[in-house]
Design a protein that fits this description.
The complex is a heterodimer. Chain A is mainly beta. Helix content of chain A is 9%, strand content 40%. Chain A is built from 5 helices and 36 strands. Chain A starts with a helix and ends with a strand. In chain B, the strands form 2 sheets. In chain B, strands 3, 5, 6, 8, 9 and 10 form a 6-stranded antiparallel β-sheet that branches. Chain B has a 5-stranded mixed β-sheet with strand order 2-1-7-4-11, with no helix packed on it. The N terminus of chain B is likely disordered. The chains are: A mainly beta, B mainly beta. The structure holds fe (ii) ion.
């Protein structure tokens, strides 16, 4: 009798899961065909072709002078394999996680990449076709779900944690990998009572090693908050009720608080939708809520409002002398990049992404006065904001973003430059990539000797090679000091972390 | 509630290929003995540990109840990798089954902070939900005079 209740609760969690009707089996997948035809016309789409089901290992060819002090591993993750059994995913976010490691030191740069062997991918490999639904894809004859982890592709980011590397999704468990071989060990359970709870792909790590994260349960309207000690032990995990929580992707941390933005994008429970994506409704007339959580007891202390907006990624947050929370983010007017562009991209349809693209904004949240304010701080498109690890949760002077100036006209549809903001002096330095290259998330890092560098992966779509460029963080405009070039092209990735040593 | 000896299920240790006549830990039969008699096998696959017990529930569907009416609740030892329980002299009709591997044997399904099960469970036909729990109609198996088998694979 109780068991029935439990099963029902369990499967409510699967409400996250895009399910629904069974699509008719096409004769030859039209999306696969359409994408390949579009690729002929627009070769920069190579970044979205997806990889084959195979391992990648290579020694990179280095030109320029790799900084002697810069040794360590750059781990990255992102949707890697989009097609299996001749059927192509309908959304960019559904591809199986491809975890990469760029390892450099002693004048050598080596690269390795492996698809995360999730339970989902293992089942689908055995079947020779897609079985499970994704965020925005419903394969023909899809099977049902026992829980959100059934469709976990572990494809957004990574987190080095002790003797393991975690591959992160946002609606389920992290997957543990061997940090050396990148072989998949399996899903991670931090404690019995947190088993299966969502662990977002954007945990925030303070300079002392303390780690915070959140997770959303869109179907249950719950927020999970995670707190780990510097030695990676789970200190606390709590669940808070948050009506219409939607799907927050990232958050920020200050010395005293955690802060989330909740854009008004929710699943419509009445929607007869094939996928979770299809069930989402944008309520542009509503506010984007600002949720402030007190670190000490993980209680929600304030909810404020901003105009409707969509934010994937934040830079960093801190509290000023007056206790006002300051943060920056890549702010979009609506989520159409996700709900439309990243879907159309999968069949190679031209979609003007610029109207819904994010721009650099900064915010002030005054808890005493109960106000939240925002303003743009650079007239450009911008995404993938990052700060140096040593500046997380305190005032940061340097902010890195990929960008595109409004009069830039690259021969591809993406961002075309990397920008380094000196926030104290309100100055921007940038490097514009050649049109034949698509830059990916660039990471500011500090080497063992204190020197500051910028690690810049990119895809040279013209030559079909993936690259890693290194810039001086303090002189990005001078261009890369070294470039490592692979003998193969990898799908454009999402997020990474650098581990020095 | 008095029980006839013929109602005692037998447990087969399939892995060992031997039949263990039920010195069962618990049997509770809640339904009246019907006129027609059929044999029903409940098969639980992918049992990964012999800790604790399996708690099975057989439900009869129809008779005006969409949700099914509990016909038997059975507790048997957990045996790796498969457990088979045979129930005799049940009426023909539509049935569904659920199982919970009560690993810590505390009589309740262990759950995480939001109530999702953290002990293995399964339902007949391995039915899975779409936007919710599996439907009873997907779990249903028709049992005629020749008997029937209800299979479920544990979800871990
Ligand atoms: Fe992200």
């Amino acid at each position: 009798m109780q068991r029935r209740q439990f099963l029902e609760l369990a499967l409510t969690a699967a409400a996250l899961a895009p399910l629904g009707r069974v699509a008719a089996m096409p004769l030859g997948d039209t999306w696969e065909t359409a994408f390949r035809a579009a690729l002929e016309e627009a070769p920069w789409l190579l970044g979205y072709l997806g990889c084959e089901d195979r391992p990648f290992d290579a020694s990179a060819k280095v030109t320029g002078t790799w900084p002697a002090a810069l040794a360590g591993s750059l781990y990255r993750n992102g949707p890697g394999m989009h097609s299996l059994g001749g059927w192509r995913y309908r959304h960019l976010f559904d591809g199986d996680g491809l975890v990469q490691c760029w390892r450099f030191g002693n004048g050598e740069v080596r690269h390795r990449a492996r698809l995360v062997a999730t339970d989902k991918l293992e089942r689908e490999r055995a079947a020779g076709r897609r079985l499970l639904p994704g965020f925005g894809s419903l394969p023909p004859d899809a099977v049902g779900l026992a829980g959100a982890d059934d469709l976990n592709p572990a494809n957004i980011s990574v987190l080095p944690q002790g003797d393991r590397l975690l591959a992160l999704w946002e609606a389920g468990s992290p997957y543990a990998l061997d940090p050396e071989t990148l072989a998949t060990r399996g899903p991670v359970t931090f404690s019995a009572e947190t088993r299966g709870l969502p662990f977002s792909a954007h945990p925030r790590q303070e300079p002392d090693g303390t780690l915070w994260n959140f997770g959303y349960l869109a179907g249950l309207n719950k927020l999970v908050l995670w707190h780990f000690t510097p030695d990676a032990r789970l200190a606390r995990a709590v669940v808070r009720d948050v009506p219409r929580i939607g799907m927050p992707h990232d958050f920020v941390v200050t010395r005293q608080h955690l802060l989330l933005l909740l854009p008004p994008l929710y699943p419509d429970p009445g929607a007869d939708a094939a996928t979770l994506l299809d069930s989402l409704r944008w309520h542009g007339e509503e506010a984007t809520r600002v949720l402030v959580v007190r670190k000490s007891d993980l209680e929600i202390v304030t909810t404020l409002e901003l105009p409707a907006q969509w934010v994937f990624h934040f830079g960093n947050a801190w509290e000023d002398e007056a206790g006002v929370i300051r943060f920056d983010a890549a702010r979009a007017p609506d989520p159409r990049l996700m709900t439309e562009t990243f879907r159309e991209l999968m069949r190679g349809t031209e979609a003007d992404f610029t109207t819904s693209a994010a721009r650099p904004y900064r915010y002030r949240v005054d808890l005493q006065g109960g106000t939240a304010e925002e303003e743009p701080f650079a007239d450009m498109l911008g995404e993938f904001p990052l700060v140096l690890p040593a500046e997380v949760a305190r005032r940061h002077d340097t902010l890195v973003m990929l960008g595109r100036d409004l009069d830039d006209r690259p021969r591809h549809d993406g961002l075309d430059r990397v920008c380094v903001f000196d926030l104290a002096c309100e100055r921007r330095a940038s490097f514009r990539y050649p049109d034949t290259e698509l830059p990916e998330e660039h990471l500011p890092v500090t080497a063992a000797d204190g020197s500051r560098w910028l690690l810049g992966p990119s895809l040279d779509w013209a030559s079909g090679q993936s690259l890693l460029r290194v810039f001086r963080l303090d002189d990005v405009a001078a261009g890369p000091v070294a470039t490592a070039r692979l003998p193969y092209a990898l799908p454009l990735g999402l997020h990474g972390r650098f581990l020095a040593g | 509630m008095a029980k006839d000896a013929q109602w005692l299920p037998r447990v087969c240790r399939t892995a060992a290929g031997t039949i263990m006549v039920a010195t069962l830990l618990l049997i509770a039969l809640l339904a009246q003995a019907p006129a027609a008699a059929a044999e029903i096998q409940l098969v639980v696959e992918d049992v990964r540990s012999e800790q604790g017990v399996l708690r099975l529930e057989l439900l009869r569907i129809g008779d005006g109840s969409e949700d099914g009416v509990t016909t038997a609740q059975i507790m048997v030892p957990a045996v790796v990798p498969r457990v088979r329980v045979t129930l005799h002299d049940l009426g023909t009709g539509r049935y569904a089954a659920r199982v919970h591997h009560d690993v810590d044997d505390d009589g309740a399904m262990a759950t995480n902070l939001v109530g999702m099960p953290t002990e293995p469970w399964g339902v007949s036909n391995d039915a899975r939900g779409r936007f919710g729990p599996p439907r009873m109609t997907d779990m249903a198996v028709d049992v005629g005079d020749e008997g029937g088998v209800l299979r479920m694979t544990l979800v871990h």
